[in-house]
Amino acid sequence: MSTRADYTDEEWAAIRETPAMAAIAMERASPSGFLGRRRERKAQERSFAAIMSSYAGMALMDAIVAAAEEEGRLIDKLRGVDRPFVDEALAGAAVARKAIEAKGSREELEAYQIGVIGLCEDIAVADQEQGPGSLSPAEATILQRLAGALGRPDYTPGNPDFTPPGRQARVILVGLDGADTEQGLGQQRR
Predict the structure, then answer these.
(1) 175 pLDDT exceeds 60?
(2) What's this model's pTM, rounded to 2 decimal places?
(3) Please, are residues 170 and 158 in contact by the beta-carbon 8 Å criterion?
C-alpha cells in the first residue's frame, strides 16, 4: 500500500487532478441544456467520493478523498478555465497510472482506474438528453481513450468489471448510427 508521501509532487498532482480534469472533459463532451448540466454537476459532486469510499481503508484512496476535501473544490476552479481538458486528463491519467504502478499496489491502481472511469460514466449518463443512461459517441470515445491512458484498454462502457463494488452497471451506449446497444444493465460487481 502507498501513501501521499510515496509520490513526487508531480505524480501527486496528476493523481489528484486527473479526476477533476476528466470530469470537466466529460461535461464538455456533449452539449447539455441547463438541466443536463445541473444533473452532470450533481453526479460529479456525489460520484467520486462515493466510489472512493467503496475502497475506504486503502491509504492512497483515503488520501485522494482527503486532499479533495482539504483543497476545496478544484473542479470549480477549473470549470471557469478554457483549456484542452481531454488532452490534459489523458496525460495526467498516464502519469498517475505509471506512478501508482511503480509505487502502489495492484489493488490501488484498480481502485483508481475504476474511480476515474466510474466518475466519468456517472457524469456522462446523468444528463439524460440522449435518453436515460445513454452515452453520446463523443462521451464513449473520451471514456475509451481515458481508460486506455489509465492502462485499461479492455474497457467498454457498462462493463460490470469497471463498476465499483456494490454498484450496478447501467450504461446504454448510443452508437454512431443512433442505435442503442444495451451493455451491462443489471449486472452487479461483487
Answers:
(1) no
(2) 0.80
(3) yes
C-alpha count within 13 angstroms, C-beta hemisphere, residue 160: 12
| Matching residue, cell 467503496 | 54
The Cα–Cα gap between 183 and 110 comes to 21
**Start-to-end CA span in the chain (Å):** 22
pLDDT, residue 145, reads 94
Distance of CA 4 to the CA centre of its chain: 20
- Residue 87 CA to residue 89 CA, distance in Å, equals 5
C-alpha torsion angle, residues 66, 67, 73, 79 (rounded to 10)? -130
**Per-residue model confidence (pLDDT) at position 182:** 41
Q: Write out pLDDT tens, residues 82-134.
A: 778 899 999 999 999 999 999 999 999 999 998 899 888 888 888 765 555 67
Sign of CA dihedral 100, 143, 155, 58: positive
In the chain, which ranges are continuous DSSP H helix?
Answer: 9-29, 34-53, 59-70, 74-79, 85-103, 106-126, 137-149
Q: Give the start-to-end residue ranges of the domains of the chain.
A: 4-183
Interacting residues of 125 by C-beta distance below 8 A, sequence separation 6+: 43, 132, 133, 134, 135, 170, 171
CA 96 distance to own-chain centroid: 13
**Cell triple for 187:** 449486472
Q: DSSP letters of 44-57? A: HHHHHHHHHHTTTT
β-bridge partners, 135: 173
